[in-house]
Design brief:
single chain; globular; 0% helix; 7-stranded mixed sheet; mainly beta
């Protein structure tokens, strides 16, 4: 059974940093096809970052490129999202999602496996 558990969200000031973690079971992180999505109130869910289906490359939404970094720890079977230079528009619930696919350099979810989400609020 695939399970995803996010943690690390919280309240941070603009320009600050947070590191989100996703503990994964029932899915092998090393193989890729996993990533992060977010949804702000009243807005559509968007792909933030993900590993390609073969696990060899990473992809980022234009809005976070250069500020966010996705990584993984294969031994722990965990995925992380380091978020730097946070902006108020980054405020959202962040979800760990699997499986994902990449089409035209964009991350898309391809299944029903989502974590509960972790709230990130960027505010003064």
């Amino acid at each position: 059974q695939l399970q995803l558990v996010e943690s690390g969200g919280g309240l941070v000031q603009p320009g600050g940093s947070l590191r989100l973690s996703c503990a994964v079971s029932g899915f092998t992180v090393a193989y890729g096809a996993i990533g992060w999505f977010r949804q702000a109130p009243g807005k559509e869910r968007e792909g933030v970052s993900c590993f390609s289906t073969d696990g060899t490359s990473t992809h980022y939404a234009d809005s976070v490129k250069g500020r966010f970094t996705i990584s993984r720890d294969n031994a722990k079977n965990a995925v992380y999202l380091q978020m730097n230079s946070l902006k108020s528009e980054d405020t959202a619930v962040y979800y760990c999602v699997a499986p994902v696919i990449v089409t035209t350099n964009r991350c898309h979810y391809n299944g029903d496996y989502w974590g509960r989400g972790t709230q990130v609020t960027v505010s003064s």
